[in-house]
Amino acid sequence: MRTAALIALALLAACGRKADLQPADGTLPPAPYGAPAPATVTQMLEPPTQAAPERVDDPIKRSEERPDDPFDLPPPQ
Questions:
Q1: Model pTM score
Q2: Which pLDDT value is given to residue 15?
Q3: SS3 for 50?
Q4: CA angle 55, 45, 43 (to 5 degrees)
Q5: Please, what is the end-to-end C-alpha distance for the chain in angstroms?
Q6: What are phi and psi of 41, to 5 degrees?
Q7: What pLDDT sits at residue 14?
Q8: Contact assessment for residue 28 and residue 41, using Cβ atoms and an 8 Å cutoff
Q9: Full DSSP string of the chain
Q10: What residue range is the signal peptide (predicted)?
Q11: Residue 54 pLDDT greater than 80, yes or no
């Protein structure tokens, strides 16, 4: 059992990336409706802003008591 796990781990480690990603047939997919030109490979590999949003900091910077929230109600009994 342990030997099989080590072999599986070695095979998994051996299938790393060898080269940059390229389209299979050398052509890119057509441009989306309304886009002036098809996206390049680099543009398609870059995640959109919604995939990695920036952190929103808390508006209260110092130790202050928060104002009352009328929607912060206790759970129903």
A1: 0.34
A2: 65
A3: helix
A4: 95
A5: 53
A6: -60, -40
A7: 59
A8: yes
A9: -HHHHHHHHHHHHH----S----SSS-PPPPPTT-SSPPPHHHHHSPPGGGSPPPPPPS--SS-PPPP-TT-PPPP-
A10: 1-19
A11: no
The token pair that represents 39 in the structure block: 């996206």
Contact 27, 45 (CB under 8 A): no
Quick one: pLDDT at residue 67? Answer: 78
Q: Which residues contact 9 (CB under 8 A, 6 or more apart)?
A: none
The pLDDT tens digits for 7-52 are: 877 776 656 667 776 777 777 788 888 988 888 888 888 888 788 7
At 63, list the tokens.
């130790």
Cα–Cα distances (Å) from 25 to 22, 28, 39, 41, 42, in that order, read: 9, 8, 16, 13, 17
